[in-house]
Amino acid sequence: MSSSNSTGMFKGAREYFPGIGRIPFEGPSSDNPLAFKHYDADRRIGDKTMAEHLRFAVCYWHSFCNAGHDPFGPGTRAYPWDAPAPSGDSPLARAEAKLDAAFEFFTKLGVPYYCFHDIDLAPDADDIGEYEKNLAHMVALAKQRQQATGMKLLWGTANLFSHPRYMNGASTNPDFDVVARAAVQVKAAIDATVELGGENYVFWGGREGYACLLNTDMKRELEHFARFLTMARDYGRSVGFTGNFLIEPKPMEPMKHQYDFDSATVAGFLQRHGLADDFKLNIEANHATLAGHSFDHDLQVASDAGLLGSIDANRGNPQNGWDTDQFPTDLYDTVGAMLVVLRQGGLQPGGLNFDAKVRRESTDAEDLFLAHIGGMDAFARGLEVAHALLADSPLETWRRERYAGFDNGAGRAFATGELDLPGLRAQALERGEPARRSGRQEAYENLINQYLLRAGNS
Ligand code: XLS
Ligand code: NI
Ligand code: NI
User: What PANTHER family has UniProt attached to this entry (predicted)?
Assistant: First the structure.
């Protein structure tokens, strides 16, 4: 194949997705499964292009490292980059092949960002020197690929949950040896993120939680967690990381209970430990639903606390109680999410990372493209509709009017703290029995459908 960068392939690299070129935008009437129907990167919606609003990222772990294994059987996909490398097989040679495949995919799909864990990108090793050397080698290659393709790193992170040493947690492990070992990976992953110009650094607390409260000193573990995050923050700032640190809440799985339960829990934790200026939240749809919330609820809680930093875009399955990490296709979800994002003025420097995996039964290379195209189209349509709702529909006026009683007079005095309880009671005497004001939920719901179904674009 050619050395052309337009399809993300490096000189001499083999083509991993033959027969698939750069995914074009063809519009809503196209029947081409390998074309965007709504995501038109350069189209302006309000003050930004779709690409600037949505800041899509592809994740390395589900898309290039996970061949479909589940607790009942091994992977179903034979990834060519996992096969013995013809030019001399080694874990590093396979990691290099995977990097080629990943950059080919990113470029053909036309996303601006990607995300990885340290050991998605580079082979893991128990020997600390070897681990650090592997990562540094792969980071240097990734940097070349980024320069050649214009791809950028949305965030890096360390996998502190797969290796058996982390079975009782990483920074919250009761064993100090493990806490120290976790620092090896976090330092290396922060260094990698800085070297690659990453705009954020994520902590998903994989096994930071407990399986059994009887053997757990929760208070102590949470104090260690805050210590560890503070050290990571201080180190990151000392080596020039200026982006956001992000905590990704999840209530359970793999642990029975995880400390970063949901937005509200993490916001309180960050504020309590003086971390809220440097840390924000990375909200994953399926984690919000696992916590018993809706996706937009947890986004709104984060946003209201000034802490919505980024999004892991996926969806759960209402029949299953676990993190199915499906690609987002539900337009109500994407409209709801984009309403929160637009109201707070955007996600930057965060983005929409597809922390999602194709189904175990989806075994064609093409399925990976179809999954991302569907997710990107669903969010593009969500963006269009949310923008139109905010710009053209009565939504904001209706919502504001519900609270109009607090805009002036005694209502305002109440809101600004100028009334005491007896004074508030006196208002009741003056005002008499309150009239019933309908919440008009049906009108709001109909409005969403009206804008979703409206033909054409706003
Ligand atoms: C797992 C998490 C994980 C993080 C990154 O449930 O979503 O993939 O996003 O460690
Ligand atoms: Ni998840
Ligand atoms: Ni995630």
Answer: PTHR48408, XYLOSE ISOMERASE
Q: Which domain holds residue 260?
A: 44-392
Q: Provide the annotated active-site residues.
A: 117, 120
Q: Are residues 56 and 192 located together in one domain of the fold? A: yes
Tens of pLDDT, residues 258-317: 999 999 999 999 999 999 999 999 999 999 999 999 999 999 999 999 999 999 999 999
DSSP letter string, 382-404: HHHHHHHHHHTSSHHHHHHHHTG
Domain boundary residue among 375, 392, 409? 392
Within a domain: residue 6?
Answer: no
Q: How far apart are CA 201 and CA 203, in angstroms?
A: 7
Q: Residue 125 in 3-state DSSP?
A: coil
What are 299's two structure tokens? Answer: 């986004």
Tell me, yes or no, whether 35 lies in a domain: no
| Cβ–Cβ < 8 Å for 230, 270 | no
Q: Is residue 24 part of a domain?
A: no
**Binding-site residues, please?**
248, 284, 287, 312, 323, 325, 355
DSSP string spanning 173-216? -SSHHHHHHHHHHHHHHHHHHHHTT-SEEEEE-TT-EES-GGG-
The closest residue, in CA terms, to atom 3 on ligand 1 is 204
Contact 379, 37 (CB under 8 A): no
Same domain? 374 vs 413: no
By alpha-carbon position, which residue is closest to atom 10 of ligand 1?
Answer: 204
Can you tell me the distance from the alpha carbon of 311 to that of 55, in angstroms, rounded to the nearest whole number?
Answer: 10
Q: Identity (one letter) of the amino acid at 430?
A: E
Annotated binding site for Mg(2+): 248, 284, 287, 312, 323, 325, 355
CA end-to-end span of the chain: 41
For ligand 1, is residue 312 a contact (CB within 6 Å)?
Answer: yes
Q: Which of 22, 24, 21, 4 is nearest to 12 (CA)?
A: 4
Query: d(Cα 253, Cα 287) in Å, to the nearest integer?
Result: 9
| Cα 13 to ligand 1 centre (Å) | 30
The answer to whether residue 18 sits within a structural domain is no
**Could you tell me the distance, in angstroms and rounded to a whole number, from the CA of residue 276 to the centre of ligand 3?**
20
CA of 62 to the centre of ligand 2 (A): 10
pTM check: above 0.90: yes
Q: What is the DSSP string of 309-365?
A: EEEE--B--TT-SS---BPP--HHHHHHHHHHHHHTT--TT--EEE-----TT--SH
